[in-house]
Amino acid sequence: AQSVTQLDSQVPVFEEAPVELRCNYSSSVSVYLFWYVQYPNQGLQLLLKYLSGSTLVKSINGFEAEFNKSQTSFHLRKPSVHISDTAEYFCAVSNTDKLIFGTGTRLQVFP
Amino acid sequence: EADIYQTPRYLVIGTGKKITLECSQTMGHDKMYWYQQDPGMELHLIHYSYGVNSTEKGDLSSESTVSRIRTEHFPLTLESARPSHTSQYLCASSELGTGPEAFFGQGTRLTVV
Fold it and tell me: Using CB atoms, which residue from B43, B100, B101 is nearest to A101?
């Protein structure tokens, strides 16, 4: 069975500071990893994904995540956050069958 | 651009009523999902489908039922709504195959009074 753990339910940070949202997963088979973002009263939008190849994946708005197989982690980072990054962030894992989500991390960016 | 639609966006209904939440996608995706999202954010998979006439129960037990008569349509039905069904329901779809990216609708926020 697969599972995803997001240890931080809330991450407060000041604008222009760096941020890391942690994600660990467990699976007995090879997996595909995703980060989704949810803005208020919206559905989820894909932020970035790891399928294979380079372990560092990047989004168009400055976020990046690194797949670490030995630590079973897929942490999300951004070197300098903006007010508009305030949202809920969900890590997810799939082995082509089901897409399983973590409990989410609320990123709150303060001016 | 993702094209997956959920209606209604918001629904307030009385206890005991039968309701159907609609979900349609125009991308030709075979896989579709229903997630229930708690007020505190956590997403639980309640139903999914591999294609027409395929329905599977997810990880969270739900009193709702689903059907998949057409590829593009995956409605969710509650025969008798209760206050415990109050939640946000998110529909998603993806292609079959490896590493599927799931596209989400905007959700239906259901309140049962």
Answer: B43
